[in-house]
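Session log. Operator J.P. requested a structure for one protein chain; no other inputs attached. Running the standard single-chain path with token output.
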Amino acid sequence: MHYGDNPTKTYKQTVLPYAHDTDPIVTSLHKGNHVLFWDPEVHKSCIAYDRTIKQQCHWLNNNDIWEDPFRITSIVKLNIYINDIKRQGVVKPMLLYHDGKEKFGLHTGENRMRSTECLSELIRFKSFITTHKQHADQFKHLESIKNFEQFVGKCKTPVGTKYLFKFTDSDAPYGIFWYEYDSDKTRAVTPSYKWCEKVMRNYLKANNITFTPEWFDTVVDWKLYE
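Structure written below.
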């Protein structure tokens, strides 16, 4: 994995376009070493991800789960996220990467892929695809994203939205490692690690439960366990 010296930076969608030397997407392209594309309908079968819902259930039921609080966070978020998708659909575009393998890797969107196991209607996803210039010809049928103005246009966020990016470096197989933005539409599904660990501990104290795939599709009022 490659990172620059200062990989996480904040950008506010206030004045567009950014000057060339401060535009985060221009920065991520590393003077042409990397390219970024937009695909509005990547099929879920083209995306690789780890830890299916069944695997999550097996881990929850058979391990000391408190040895991995980060994973607990993902599980709480998935339960919240599945029910949020039912309410408003998928909001944030995925960030996929291509490093020469058959399937895309995921930088953002693992819980979206797990959600497809419960929500059969989730088949195609709006996605950014980051890769090295040597693979650019494979995606020449797609729109090339070359600046921040194009990027936020695809995200359809209001003016003033704050974005966070983690960039790689010029030798990496792709240009962006992660991105996030602050939005009322997504805030409910992005609680903190500490909050997720706290509510899960309290939930398990109050409920004697064996986790099943159906549990993830059950509405839990997590505020009761704060």
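Operator note: The two ends are 36 Å apart (CA to CA).
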